[in-house]
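Researcher: Quick test of sequence recovery. Tokens follow.
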């Protein structure tokens, strides 16, 4: 076997000579040849070390001469590229649990007689009260950071400026204060009836189609915007380990009355504890949470204060 190792080393040396002649051109541009020679030197060094190991241990298992003889710079590069290709083609997203996907489809089918007429009426209302598209599409961040286009009913006027909203969101991410929506005090960018659509979450109904396509689920963290995700710290990004949903643990535990830090903590809690029992608890608490949100928004509506004229002292 020691002789076999010597033959393998000679084969490697011969292969290195072949690469020298093949990869060096007449103009002295031999960068590729130098890389090949370097790789061949590495292989030759391995052969030499294995030969020494065989001499010390007397074991033929320490070295496979035929396998080493077949190794050259080209095969090493090919294997490296193959590994890289396998890594890049690995799926970023695993399928939803079967029970969760089944629950989504079952609830959507059973509730279709309710949400289909409601969606139709809202679409007609948006089309009548505000010129422009009925639906609004926006890129969001889904499971494991994958982007997808979310679908909502348009509740703002066409070409409304969103700079103020983006700056306000950035402020909420660093400030330890409740995440009250800007439109709760009256927002001139909203269409007629837009405030009530947002307060009840009815503007989110078209995301049922995102659920049907598998980009979302009925129960999960709300999908964040791309700009918001870019400002997440590494611990915050754990919230995308769960599929985004229409309702979730944060939505039924305070929602806009909680801070950004509390929202992240609740979303991470859900991503670590996904179960059928937890999803059913969230479903049961969703409609009372919506009712509380509507009542809270109504209480915050600006009202004209009536003042009695003060008496004038003489």
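Model:
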């Amino acid at each position: 076997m020691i002789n076999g190792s010597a033959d393998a080393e000679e084969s490697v040396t011969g292969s290195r000579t072949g690469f020298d002649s093949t990869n060096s051109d007449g103009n002295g541009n031999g960068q590729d040849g130098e890389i090949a020679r370097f790789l061949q030197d590495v292989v030759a060094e391995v052969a030499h070390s294995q030969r020494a190991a065989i001499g010390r241990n007397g074991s033929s298992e320490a070295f496979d001469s035929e396998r080493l003889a077949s190794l050259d710079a080209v095969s090493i590069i090919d294997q490296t590229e193959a590994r890289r290709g396998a890594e890049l083609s690995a799926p970023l997203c695993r399928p939803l649990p079967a029970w969760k996907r089944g629950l989504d489809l079952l609830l959507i089918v059973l509730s279709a007689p309710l949400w289909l007429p409601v969606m139709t009426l809202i679409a007609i209302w948006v089309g009548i009260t505000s010129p422009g598209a009925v639906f609004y599409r926006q890129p969001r961040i889904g499971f494991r950071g994958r982007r997808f286009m979310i679908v909502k009913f348009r509740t703002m006027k066409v070409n409304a400026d969103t700079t103020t909203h983006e700056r306000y969101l950035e402020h909420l991410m660093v400030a330890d204060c409740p995440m009250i929506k800007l439109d709760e005090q009256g927002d001139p960018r909203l269409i007629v009836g837009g405030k009530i659509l947002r307060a009840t979450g009815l503007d989110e109904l078209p995301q049922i189609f995102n659920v049907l396509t598998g980009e979302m689920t009925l129960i999960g963290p709300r999908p964040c915007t791309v700009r918001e995700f870019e400002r997440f710290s590494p611990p915050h990004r754990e919230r995308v380990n769960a599929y985004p949903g229409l309702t979730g643990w944060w939505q039924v535990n305070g929602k806009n009355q909680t801070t950004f830090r509390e929202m992240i903590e609740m979303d991470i809690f859900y991503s670590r504890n996904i179960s059928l029992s937890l999803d059913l608890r969230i479903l049961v608490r969703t409609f009372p949470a919506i009712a509380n949100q509507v009542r809270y928004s109504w209480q915050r509506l600006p009202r004209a204060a009536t003042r009695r004229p003060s008496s004038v002292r003489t």
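The first helix runs from residue 2 to 23.
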